[in-house]
Amino acid sequence: MNSRQRRGVILLVLSVVCALAAFAGVLTVISDVKSKVGPEVTAYQVKAEIQPYETLNRGQFEKISMPERWLSSNAVTDLRDIEGKIAVTALKKGSLLQSDMIVPQPALQAGQQEVAIMIDAATGVAGKITPNSTVNVYATFEGQRQGDPAQSKIIVTNARVLDVGRLTPLDPDDGDRTGRTTEAVPITFALSTLDAQRLTYAESFAQRVRLALVAPGGDTPVPDQDRTYELAKDK
Questions:
Q1: Where is pLDDT greater, at 214 or 171?
Q2: Residue ranges covered by each domain of the chain
Q3: pTM of this structure
Q4: What class has domain 40-104?
Q5: Is 210 helix (H, G, I), strand (E, B) or coil?
Q6: Rounded Cα distance, 45 and 76, in Å
Q7: Torsion sign, CA atoms 164, 170, 175, 180
Q8: What CA–CA distance (Å, rounded) separates 162 from 176?
Q9: What is the per-residue DSSP string for 109-169?
Q10: How far apart are CA 179 and CA 188, in angstroms?
Q11: What digits encode the pLDDT tens for the residues 120-179?
């Protein structure tokens, strides 16, 4: 073997050694990344937008895998957890399903129905109304004709709150009648048919709907003569 052949062999050996070293380096990097990311676990994301208070089913979600260390502690990893549940608020497509997005379906008594309306945060006893609270619902109306006095009416008494949603910014077109942009909270009630009609009427036509928290044991009926208030008649 002449000197040129020896140099060729040496270069070939060096090339193989360098290739092995590079391969070993790649394996080291991959192993390091895996050790940092950790094992993957199953989670679920929303396939298409789900409306607030909509009953949930397995077909609305798709399984995904992601590193366990990146998964929030309240992520849903088993779809059995959604059985008998409803969405608290609108669930956007692609959102990771989490336990604080869902609540059990409320149990209604015979003759009751579930009704949800948006309540202005400023008029909803900010932060103090919770599920199972009892409230009276007040609404203020303009006079029916020019010159008629405005009135404040107790629309519903002793309404049971089933659920309180998240504070949500309202678009200007969805705000109060003065055109101000407000924040509102979706609140769900268990009501009789008549009270549900009263509540939805007030939400549609009243200038303002306000909730008054009733103290425990203070659910006595309000006399008819005390349900309507006019400033001119105040003594």
A1: 214
A2: 40-104, 112-233
A3: 0.51
A4: alpha beta
A5: strand
A6: 9
A7: positive
A8: 24
A9: PTTEEEEEEEEEGGGS-TTT--TT-EEEEEEEE--SSTTPPPEEEEEEEEEEEEEE---EE
A10: 25
A11: 776 665 667 888 888 999 999 887 777 777 888 899 999 988 888 877 776 655 544 444
